[in-house]
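Aim 2 progress update. The chain analyzed this quarter is reproduced below.
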Amino acid sequence: MQSGNSVFSRLEVKKYILKKNLKRDLPSSIVVFLVALPLCLGVALASGAPLFAGLVTGIVGGIVVSSLSGSQLSVSGPAAGLTAIVLGAIGTLGGYQTFLLAVVLAGAMQLILGLLKGGTIGNYFPSSVIEGMLAAIGLTLILKQLPHALGVDSDFFGDESFLQKDNENTFSAISSALDHFTLAAIVISGLSILVLVFWPKFKKLSIIPAPLVVVILGVGLSLAFQGTGYALQAKQMVEIPVVSGWAEFKDLFVAPNFSEILNGKVWIVAATIAVVASLETLLSIEAVDKIDPIKRVSPTNRELMAQGAGNMFSGLLGGLPLTSVIVRSSANVNAGARTKMSAIFHGVWLLLSLLFIPGLINMIPLACLAAILLVTGYKLTRVALFKHMFHKGWDQFVPFVITIVAVLLTDLLKGVAIGMLFSVFYLLRTNMRNPYFYKIQEEGNKKNIRIKLAEEVSFLNKAAIQVVLNNIPKETNVIIDGTNSRYIDPDVLETIFNYKHNAYTKGIIVTLENVKEQYTVPKLNNKVIEEINN
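Predicted structure tokens:
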């Protein structure tokens, strides 16, 4: 008799190879491959690492991480948010091979963090901040890809930071691009956007993915412009390493320098990468779950372990640190993916393109790939989202907008941190205002006031309760009702008991109903906790 786990595994595998899922996942994987290819190269270039390292990371993120992950739509690879850390770490550690050791150790730390159930941290990011992050990523894609769509590729493809390495910022780069645009790139990107918008409307034609049509169109137009004054330059095209044989391919791999295992600086870099990569991953997973049409929930602890294994593989093969990346993931969702097979296939396509068709891949203009990201960005930051958040109230809308502005003007992690601060402010304000239900009844000349305490009364509610009690008029009967309260903070209890003790001096009679002298913090059953975490 087979175990339940093996039966589950068989059912899970069968789900992934269902024809109806593959019909969506295969075309989606091509879209993600086309988006991920220049991003992998761009992040490697900005990190001061070999271009091959970026591709290795993308392949590992697609095949290894997606196979181990419980997320169905997340796509992992080298992240633009880590470029500054990587660039600085390579210089600090004195060599790329020593840095690779730090990547392997960072992966081991993530693996341990996942085993210790550290993935629950992701549950503490408010919805308004996650929605703001998604909208900000959408706007960032639009603003950052506009120069590439205009044919100006001075900054690396996929840069998400406000301040760029070419001494420009997001807005000045657009202004500069308008002065140095390339007509061929504008034609390619403009026609590509039209194809992406209108191609899916023709049901018979939509069997062929619109992004694939865009790439074919881009290559064709690029060839048409050759030999004219409008021909695209090499830097305006995708550039992947060209290998002439298996021996040359093997020589591209670099191994970590394990002799530096006792170097304290290596461990500091590893810990930094582990923390930042884990946070970016948890934010991305939370965001991807929000835009998943089926609304599945990804197991975050399993994701951290998958990312840890991925970073260990990447470091051992000479790759960069990886995370779940919202740009690739949102492109995957918008392309119609249903299961993790899309991400796995995208890793396979990266590997095959590097081995067999590097020359053909290098014929793809960055302008048509920029068009794909522009349309993806528009879908993430649609007007309907702003209307929806506005109707949810100021306590949701303000952190949402603040997060957008902060991400646009800094980077992903700093922007989310600023959004979190504003969200916590509104949370505390709401919490302080709602510790009780207040009801006044009059019997003749005597007033009866019933104060019904909330289910959870924390120390943050102390000030609000004190204000109410201090303003109760003389000669009043006061009933403080704790019937619904599962927990009342000791500071609040002390305030209530002190008030009851001293109220007689004002002619106030205080009655306590179901208010205990001591409360313990409610705890979940261990079995329930285990089910939630897994």
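The mean pLDDT is 88. The longest helix spans residues 19-47. These observations will guide the mutagenesis experiments scheduled for the next reporting period.
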